[in-house]
Every structure is written in structure tokens, then in C-alpha cells.
């Protein structure tokens, strides 16, 4: 049964009237910035233009976002969260609800969001904005991990720790596996290095196909792009699952994500 990803964050206390007004103004600014990105692309983002579209001064906007970088960081985090929600909703709507079908549906949700929001997708994965550097372990990093956790849940949630640790990845060097073992977890549990390697390979394959389509490199396929993508994702999921051994008789699924 699918579950929500783990979060250590405590429920937020109710906002005061002043806090609600600030939150509403912040949402307006983000919406205006997203409209500007949709019209002119991420590189053209300007605090002055955003402020002008809202009928406010740049100085007033600085009370909410003291710099362009802080606005960009908020936009990236929000885009990742919106993309993750689209992926989660697509997986939950999978007709038969089996893990393989949920994963394929999730990838199609990823593709649909990227096609519907190409400029925001470019903000996430296109040419880095000049002079912008995301804060280390900041909102964008946490949002990226939340995005990955959505896929991780359905790719590996039904397998035990022992199964994932025994996944067949014969071409990986011991030094790379040791490096993977030091990476922070994205979801409810940390993945064994072989599973992390499989996840990165699957992600790269899926994301690469979406990037090619969003930037027009597969337009020659016309209306068949969705079909090509779906077939590729089914093959990818089947190959990944073949690399994970069956559970030993009597072995419980102690590594799975528990229900909440």
C-alpha cells in the first residue's frame, strides 16, 4: 500500500493575521514570477519586472525576497514540490495499482508536467541561471529529495533490505559502491548502494527522454512520443525488477515502507 514520504517536520502553528497576509503576498509574488518565467524564460527573471506587474515597488518586494537568489530558490523549491505532487497523483491514479504500473504512471506524470510547464522545467533542469548558486542543504536540496522519494517509494517499497542489497549491478566498482553508501537518504529509509545505483540509472533514462522531448529533439515522432515513452518506461521497470532477486522463503518485508 502506498504511503506518504517520511518527514521530520512538525505541524506548523496557526499563522497570525500578519503572517497570513505575508503568506498571501508571498504567493502573489511567486505567481507573478512564474508568469514572467512562462512568458520570457528563466534567464529573464527580474525583481523589478515582478514588482511592477504587482503594482509594488522593488523596495516593497525586498521585504519578502531580499535578493533575486532568494526568489529563485523559492521558485525552484515550489516547482519541485508541484512536480512531485503531479507524479504522486499520477501514480495514485494507476488503473491496477500494482508497483510496476504505479512507477510507469509516475513517469508519465513527470513527463506530462514537464511538457505542460516547459519554462519551469527549464528552471529546474536547464542551463543554470547566471550568478545563481543554490544554498547548500537548503530548500532546493530538500525539495529535490522529496521529488526522488516519490519514485523511490514505488520502485523499491515492496522489496526487503536484503533483496535490494543483493541487486545485480556487476559493473560497479567497490569504490563507487562505497561512495553511494555515504549519500543521504531521500525517503523513509536509506537504500543499499546497489539499489541506489539502479535508481540513478533509471532516473537518468527517464529524465533524459523527457528532456529530449521538452527541448524538441524528438518532435519528429509527432503524436507517437507518448507511446515511445510509455514502452521505454515499461521496459525500464521490467529490467530493474529483474535485477532484484526474489525474497527467500519465509523472509518478511522488513525493509518496506510501513503504512501510516
Could you give a quick summary of the protein structure above?
This protein is mainly α. The protein is built from eleven helices and no strands.
Walkthrough of the structure:
- With 260 residues, the chain is mostly helical.
- The protein has 2 domains: 17-66, Arc Repressor Mutant, subunit A; 69-242, Tetracycline Repressor, domain 2, CATH 1.10.357.10.
- It contains 11 helices and no strands.
- Helix 9 (174-180) packs across helix 10 (193-214).
- 30% of the residues are buried.
- Residues 1-8 and 254-260 have low confidence and may be disordered.
Features:
260 residues; mainly alpha; Arc Repressor Mutant, subunit A; Tetracycline Repressor, domain 2; 11 helices; disordered N terminus; disordered C terminus
CATH topology of the largest domain: Tetracycline Repressor, domain 2
Number of strands: 0
- Total discrete domains: 2
The CATH C-level class name of the largest domain: Mainly Alpha
- State the order of secondary-structure elements, H for helix, E for strand: HHHHHHHHHHH
Poorly predicted runs of 5 or more residues: 1-8, 254-260
The overall pLDDT average reads 88
> Radius of gyration from the CA trace?
21 Å
- How many separate helices? 11
- Percent of residues in helical segments? 55-70%
Biggest sheet record = none
* Proper CATH architecture of the largest domain: Orthogonal Bundle
Provide the CATH superfamily of the largest domain.
Tetracycline Repressor, domain 2
Shape type: globular
